[in-house]
Amino acid sequence: MLEVRDLHVYYGEIQALKGISFRVGPGEIVALLGNNGAGKTTTLRTVSGLLAPRSGEVLFGDHSLVGTPPHDIVTRGITHVPEGRRIFNRLTVVENLTMGAYTRGDKGIAEDMERVFTVFPRLKERRTQVAGTLSGGEQQMLAIGRALMAKPSLLLLDEPSMGLAPVLVEQIFDTVQTINKQGVTILLVEQNAAMALSIAQRGYVLETGRIALEGSATELAGNPEVRRAYLGEV
Prior knowledge:
By secondary structure, the chain is α/β, with parallel strands linked by helices. It is built from 10 helices and 10 strands. It has helices at 40-47, 70-75, 93-100, 109-119, 121-125, 136-148, 166-181, 193-199, 217-222, 224-230, and strands at residues 2-11, 14-24, 29-33, 55-60, 63-64, 78-81, 154-158, 185-189, 202-207, 210-216. It has a 6-stranded mixed sheet, sandwiched between helices. A 4-stranded antiparallel sheet has the order 2-1-4-5, covered by helices on one side. 41% of the residues are buried.
C-alpha cells in the first residue's frame, strides 16, 4: 500500500531523514518508534505532503506522492492526525467533523458522521459543544474522527496518547484497533512503545533520521535494545 524508498528530508541545511525506507501493507498497523528528534513526525509530514523530500520516493499503490499537494493526497485516501491534535477550537464538534469531509462531494457525509459517533459515543454527546472546551481525550477523539470523515484507506497517527491519562490511552488504542478492523490501514507514530507494539503487526525504530531496527511487533518487543531504550527496562 505505502512504500517509502531512500527518503532524505531537510529543514534548511539540517538533515532530518537520512535515507529511510519502509513499507506498510494493506490492513496492517505499523508502529514507528523512536525518541524525540528521531524523525518520526517528519516522516508523517512528508508522507502527507506537508514537507517535500530532497530525494527519495513515497509510493501509495502505484502512484508517487512526491510533489502532490496535501489536499490531493487526502483525496487519494491518506489522512493525517497530527501531533497535538490541531482541531478547530472555535468550531463545534459537528463543524470539525464536517471540515474533515471538505474534499468530498458525495451524499454519504451524514451517514459517515454517524459512524464516527458510533466509534466515539462521547462525541455524539458533545456534538454541539465548542471543540476548544473539550477535554484532552475528547479532543483526540475528535481529531481522529475528523480524519475518518475523509474516508481514508491509510490513517497516519502522530502520538495519539500524548498528554492523556492512562485510562484514556487504553481507550484510544482500543479504538485504533477497532478502526483497523473496519478496514483502515494505520501508520502509528508513538513514544509509548509498549502500547504501540501491543496493537501493531510490525514496527520500525528510528534513530537520528535512520531506521535502526525493524521487525514484527513481537520481535521488537523482545529485543533487548528496544526493551532498554523504549520499554523502561534496565
